[in-house]
């Protein structure tokens, strides 16, 4: 059993190490508020030495995103602590302590994909008869990618007419000419997101681009 746990979403720009470290301490339920980065790192180091913890760093692009916040040697100096890092690039993590277990996440199978798609598109266990066939085709076009299934499901949730679903399927089949490899998961996800983006209103597109 672990004494404490935390989840850290890695930001591409790097983020603020002090804020991230303070967030970890909050998740560890440490009430003291550190004054600066030096103090927060000392508090983290002390906590990790005294507690068996599990830390999850999501979407890691570089090992420094972890080590700038929690030095890996300090983490594994504690007894039985575990670090879980998710990444699209296995080379991003060069050193993770004494014992490393690598798990490759496969794309979802068709049955699981269908369940996820239905959850986000219709909110019930089964699709109505008129949407079953086109729903299966949309799921296959999403290539077992959870984000794609969620985005398409959410988009079609407010458009439950057969014609709307068929139009969405045709757009998926046509695809888009983009730089990169069509077999790459990033390409597949972008193709799905583009269908959803194209169907936004002008004001909504403007808001989306401002956020990006």
TrEMBL record:
GO terms for biological process: defense response. SUPFAM superfamilies: P-loop containing nucleoside triphosphate hydrolases (SSF52540). InterPro entries: Apaf_helical (IPR042197), Disease_R_plants (IPR044974), NB-ARC (IPR002182), P-loop_NTPase (IPR027417). Coiled coil: none annotated. Residues 24-119 form the NB-ARC domain. One of its GO terms (molecular function) is ADP binding. This is Pp15 protein. It comes from Physcomitrium patens. The gene is Pp15.
């Amino acid at each position: 059993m672990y004494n404490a746990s935390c989840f850290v979403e890695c930001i591409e720009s790097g983020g603020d190490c002090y804020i991230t470290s303070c967030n970890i301490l909050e998740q560890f339920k440490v009430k003291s508020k550190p004054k600066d980065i030096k103090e927060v790192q000392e508090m983290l180091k002390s906590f990790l030495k005294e507690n068996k913890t599990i830390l999850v760093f999501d979407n890691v692009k570089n090992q420094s995103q972890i080590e700038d916040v929690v030095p890996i040697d300090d983490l594994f100096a504690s007894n039985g602590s575990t670090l879980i890092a998710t990444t699209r690039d296995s080379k991003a993590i060069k050193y993770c302590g004494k014992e490393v277990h690598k798990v490759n996440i496969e794309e979802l199978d068709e049955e699981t994909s269908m369940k996820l798609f239905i959850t986000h598109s219709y909110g019930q266990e089964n699709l109505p008869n008129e949407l079953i066939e086109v729903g299966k085709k949309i799921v296959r076009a999403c290539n077992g990618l959870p984000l794609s299934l969620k985005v398409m499901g959410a988009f079609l949730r407010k458009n439950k007419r057969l014609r709307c679903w068929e139009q969405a399927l045709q757009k998926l089949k046509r695809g888009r000419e983009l730089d990169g490899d069509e077999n790459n998961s990033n390409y597949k996800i972008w193709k799905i997101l583009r269908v959803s983006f194209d169907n936004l209103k002008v004001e909504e597109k403007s808001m989306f681009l401002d956020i990006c």
